Write the structure tokens for this entry.
Amino acid sequence: MTSVSLLSRQENLPHTRKKENALALQENIDDAYILELLQHKESYEKGFRLLLQNYQSRIYSHVRRMVNSHEDANDIVQNCFVKVYKSIHKFEKKSKLYTWLYRIATNESLTFLEKRKRTSTDSLDSQEATWHQLKADAYFDGNQAQFLLNKAILSLPDKQKAVFNMRYFDEMPYKDISEALETSQGALKASYHHAVKKIEAFVKENSDQKERNI
Amino acid sequence: MENKNSREELKELSPFLSKMKKKEDGFSTPENYFNYLENSIMEQVSLEPNPLGVSSREEKNKPWFSWFSAKTVASFASVLLLIGAGLFLINQKTEPTTNVNTFAELTEEEILNYLSDNIDDLDVYSIGELTEENTGSDFDMLDLDEKDMEYILEEYDGGDLEDLL
């Protein structure tokens, strides 16, 4: 589908849908340009820098929501992009560029969390420690509701956490999440719905508890 | 359900969560963090080889000596070293040992003259070393002077002395 025909079909769509489509179209054009640059030795560095500028913020946010700490997220993101630099010339375009990036970032984050669990003796203590770390984090300036939400998300299993974050915060379509996590759309929907229910229950219970304590 | 966007889906699943004003996680970053991140990553990848190899422009601009990689130079140097060491060893082995040939050429008269001129420098140990016989005796450990020799000669008869020596 060419960009011209895509644009002409936009005219009859509602405004929000037009905006989303325009952004998606721009993204596709940018990705195509980036991948073209990355096919040639002379322009490889330029292409990689462009990729970095386009995606570093999104990848950082995704990783940060998985691991919470800014320092840990910083390390993981840098490792991710070095891996991307070494291997993007092998990217086969079977998926979108950004879902491929999300896959790398998610795998790195899950590996990190797994290592952290192994070094911690008690999973409950580890969770408790992470909550305290979140509260004490100099780079967390959310309100009480956001703190409760993050606490609830922390209590999810790691893979479910990734699904929830990608759908809730990044508003990714299930098709894209499926490409990133190499899981069926049906399984993802079930996982997300279950996560939403758990988080809702957690936030409500902890909000009520706080009110009772006052 | 498949075509619903995430907001519509969330409204149906949890009106409670969908009411949360903004979908923000509350996380922040240090000032100018993403500038720092970009520069830090570019610095790290600059140390990596270009996955597509060296560009054609860089290859044209390479000086002539850079065609030899460090590996090539090191291999060449070690081969030269081995050849040099080999030649040195061969030279050592083929050097003539003049002492053996010269000694064989000496006459009996020359040997006797040498011995009589240098008798003071020679001791029983040096002479003993030239023979295959074991000349070791208790007396080897002793540093005997003239007086000691006289005493020994007085105390021991010929037979005992012979045994001692």
Remarks:
- Confidence is low (pLDDT under 50) at residues 132-142 of chain B.
